[in-house]
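ok trying again, last paste got cut off:
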Amino acid sequence: MLAALRDRGYDVAAVGNVGGGMDAIQFDADGTITGATCWRAHRSPIGGGFARMGRGSGRTRGGAEPRSAVCLAF
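nice, full thing came through this time. structure:
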């Protein structure tokens, strides 16, 4: 995993212990979104949503092309 991340340009390091809370969101090629969070930091993944925003929806500025939005709550 570390080598794959380095190959993609990420600066990563293996450590023995990590302090504090951590969250992760994975976006798969098929559109699946998976989230995880650290229970020790008093956070819990509670939901997610997907919205397609387009012209006339009142959610774009200046007639911009439709785009997608993802909202995840932790």
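cool. The CA atoms of residues 35 and 64 lie 29 Å apart. Confidence is low (pLDDT under 50) at residues 57-61, 64-69.
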